[in-house]
Amino acid sequence: MANFAKSRVPRFSAEVYQNPYLPEGGREVHAIVTVTATGGGTTGGRPVPGAGTGGPDAGVVIMVDCSGSMDHPPAKLRGAREATAAALDTLRDGVGFAVVAGTHRAVEVYPGGGRLAAAGAATRAQAKEALRTLTAGGGTAIGSWLRLTGRLLSSAGAGIRHAILLTDGRNEHESPRELRDALDACSGSFTCDARGVGTDWEVKEVTAIASALLGTADIVADPAGLTADFTRMMEAAMGKEVADVGLRLWTPLGAETVFVKQVAPTVEDLTGRRRESGPRSADYPTGSWGDESRDYHLCLRVPAAEIGQEMLAGRVSLIFSAPDGDPAQNPPRPLPQGLVRALWTDDVAASTAINPQVAHYTGQAELAQAIQQGLDARKSGDIDGATEKLGRAVQLAGASGNEETAKLLAKVVDVVDTATGTVRLKAKVAEADEMTLETRSTKTVRVKK
Questions:
Q1: Nearest to 92, CA basis, from 121, 113, 71
Q2: C-alpha angle 225/229/231, rounded to 5°?
Q3: Cα–Cα distance between 103 and 202 in angstroms, integer?
């Protein structure tokens, strides 16, 4: 492969929103850190370390479920073929790509030989011809699909490594432990957007795959919508300019990290993914970035102090990893840092005030949790619990202006009063509507400026 476009590194900025004031003896500090990347692509920035050294700037693998259920109705597999072809048309020339058929085993559909093909007119045509051979039959073992995808992407040495996974059923031909082990093995190797087509798949399974591999999850209830969805996913993937970005958090002696969560555009708890990176510092993976902005909620616990004292509670920065997965040196120009402060005061009004950004995203995280708990209660037959949790979700969605989630909730409950969260469970709910609400429950809205 040769003549690949050189990706560019966006410029990152970090802004911290917080109320730094604590009462005497107060220890918990909350902050929202907005990280923004701009100027990527060919219009600015610097080449990604390792780009242009013989490997592609990006590699993409599309995993298509070809289990027996994909033929019921036949529109599912037909839609998957058409969507994959449309996604291939969206690839930049020179990007490495492959197509994998997934059943109870994983098979390379194109190009074969354990490698990626360089996107171009000829290879796209050959791949589309290979898609015609896809037939439905066999079971579902998603872990095997992921492991093959990881091997294919690793073989190419691509800077950006991305996958798209489509399934229509549950992972019934391998144990949950086998899937978990595959996710652990693939974590950090590539990002993966996961999609469920129809309504016979397991929401928690698909969202767990996307979460572990720092991608997106969604439902495509009607196979006719696959082409548009695949095209959007591939366009987003082609917009990524730098891989393996980590959020680095330093805390002073005596301080500890309670949690680190991404809160926009979706809620994702990163706390358990902490990797020590030096004395009192740790890195949290955020995946690949293009021109975009994301928000993170930090909660730090600092040593108690007396009135009038001030301390730096934490320092946030961004770090990059080289394409081979080894930590790279920070770019020559220092990346902006976000500082989280703690200042002890006897001013009650100051110490009890809640920063608007912190309050907003605390509510968004509670909204996602309330939806999940409400739907779980509904499935288990706990009507009172479901009504309480989904009512609280309606209240939170209304208060925060999360109109899309409010619309999804209205398909599951009859809203009596948004402000008080008074609702009644609908007697009949379309399975697709319930699955859509569950799958999209973690999507958030930004703070109104």
A1: 121
A2: 125
A3: 16
- On average, the pLDDT of the chain sits at 91
Question: How many other C-beta atoms can be found within 10 angstroms of the C-beta atom of residue 265?
Answer: 16
Segment among 124-128, 156-160, 218-222, 283-287 with least mean pLDDT:
156-160
pLDDT average, residue stretch 370-381: 98
Q: Which two tokens stand for residue 302?
A: 């600092």
Q: 3-state DSSP call for residue 244?
A: strand
Handedness of CA 23, 24, 27, 32 (dihedral sign): positive
**What's the confidence (pLDDT) of residue 335?**
65
Tell me the DSSP string of 42-69: TSSSEEPTTTTSSS-SEEEEEEEE-SGG
Give every strand in the sheet of 256-264, ordered side by side.
Answer: 11-18, 28-38, 292-301, 256-264, 268-269
The residues that bridge with 197 in the sheet, in sequence order, are 220
Q: Is residue 259 within 8 Å of residue 267, measured between CB atoms?
A: no
- Report how far apart, in Å, the C-alpha atoms of 223 and of each of 197, 227, 350, 435 are: 6, 8, 54, 15
Quickly tell me which residue has 């839609």 as its tokens: 79
Mean pLDDT over 67-93 rounds to 97
Across 239-243, 377-381, 410-414, least confident range: 239-243
**Per-residue pLDDT for 52 more than 60?**
no
For residue 219, count other CB atoms closer than 10 A to its CB: 23
Neighbours of 112 (CB within 10 A): 12
- State how far the Cα of 106 lies from the Cα of 172, in Å rounded to an integer: 15
Residue whose entry in the numeric block shows the structure tokens 């990706």 = 7
Parallel, antiparallel, or unpaired: how do β-strands 96-102 and 58-65 relate? Answer: parallel
Contact status, residue 195 vs residue 163, Cβ threshold 8 Å:
no
Instruction: Please list the residues that pair with 425 across neighbouring strands.
Output: 413
E-state strands within 320-447: 338-344, 413-417, 422-425
Is residue 100 within 8 A of residue 145, CB to CB? The reply is yes
Token couple for 173: 């031909």
Residue whose C-alpha is closest to residue 179's, from 138, 211, 208, 201: 208
Phi-psi region of 334 (alpha: psi -120 to 50; beta: other; left: phi over 0): beta
pTM: 0.91
Cβ-defined contacts of 73-80 (< 8 Å, 24+): 73/223, 75/223, 75/224, 76/168, 76/197, 76/198, 76/223, 77/134, 77/135, 77/136, 78/223, 79/197, 79/223, 79/224, 79/226, 79/227, 80/134, 80/166, 80/197, 80/223, 80/226
Beta bridge partners of 47: 8
Report d(CA 185, CA 368) in Å as an integer: 28
